Amino acid sequence: MAERLAAEARKQALGGLPGWTDVKGRDAIGKTFVFKDFNAAFGFMTRAALAAEKMDHHPEWRNVYKTVEVVLSTHDAGGVTALDVALAKAMNAIAG
Ligand code: H2B
């Protein structure tokens, strides 16, 4: 099972993930993506969902029109692991 990242490893990982920050009040990272319109936002969610399913690692997210708020945490580990970092990286690549 993936292990929670130590503070230093997590800080370093966030440094390489534009737009991602620590979520206040819990062990998670988050990013708010804003797209051109709903179609672009939902296209992103569709592609990200396929990537997440392939990784067997799933986001918490909320979509309002062209905005997608994403929170990543590894529930099995009770916090942020390398799996969250990998999914965050994939989402940044998908968003372009
Ligand atoms: N996604 C996330 N974000 N955290 C998990 O701990 C997790 C998951 N566990 N997706 C996976 C599925 C697990 O429940 C299955 C059985 O592999």
Describe the model.
The structure is a single chain. This protein is α+β, with helices and mostly antiparallel strands and 96 residues long. The protein has one domain: 2-Layer Sandwich (Gyrase A, domain 2). Helix content is 43%, strand content 20%. The protein is built from three helices and four strands, in the order αββαββα. A four-stranded antiparallel sheet has the order 1-2-4-3, with helices on one face. Strand 1 and strand 2 form a beta hairpin. The chain is globular. The structure holds ligand H2B. Ligand H2B binds next to loops.
Task: Based on the model shown, name its key terms.
Gyrase A, domain 2, 96 residues, globular, 3 helices, alpha+beta, binds ligand H2B
| Cα-based radius of gyration, to the nearest Å | 13 Å
CATH architecture descriptor: 2-Layer Sandwich
Tell me the name of the CATH homologous superfamily. Transcriptional coactivator/pterin dehydratase
Number of strand segments: 4
Count of the domains? 1
What is the compact description of this entry?
With 96 residues, the chain is an alpha+beta fold.
Spell out the blueprint of helices and strands.
Layout: H1 7-15, E1 21-22, E2 29-34, H2 38-55, E3 60-64, E4 67-72, H3 82-95
Antiparallel strand pairs: 1-2, 2-4, 3-4
Helix pairs in contact: 2-3
This protein binds ligand H2B.
